[in-house]
């Protein structure tokens, strides 16, 4: 089975090519979802930790822990709202331009049925 170029003359090359393409798309979606998750964690650390823990030590106070939890919840909620809005707009523009529309959940998380990170 050849990924690029010509393959054998049998009639099964089209289904194999479609399967390979589907697998590559799924892999890219998974990698994009992982990159988004890493970016989200980095941003939460950057914004929330810096705001809630002014002088890091070996332990966190109850106030710092509460602040960090609330900040993380708000940041992740905001991230999800912004992502869904962006993907809805992208889907609308694709539809208006006559391009194939891909589910917003599939684009956002790399798989169908997943709502958020």
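^ Assign residues to that structure.
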């Amino acid at each position: 089975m050849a990924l690029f170029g010509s393959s054998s003359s049998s009639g099964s090359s089209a289904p194999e090519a479609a399967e390979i393409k589907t697998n590559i798309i799924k892999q890219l979606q998974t990698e994009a979802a992982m990159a988004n998750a890493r970016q989200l964690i980095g941003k939460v650390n950057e914004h929330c930790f810096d705001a809630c823990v002014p002088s890091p030590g070996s332990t966190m106070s109850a106030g710092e822990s509460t602040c960090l939890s609330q900040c993380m919840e708000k940041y992740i909620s905001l991230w999800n709202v912004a992502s869904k809005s962006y993907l809805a707009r992208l889907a609308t523009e694709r539809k208006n331009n006559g391009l194939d529309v891909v589910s917003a959940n599939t684009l956002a998380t790399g798989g169908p049925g997943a709502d958020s990170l």
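The helical segments are 13-52, 62-96, 104-109.
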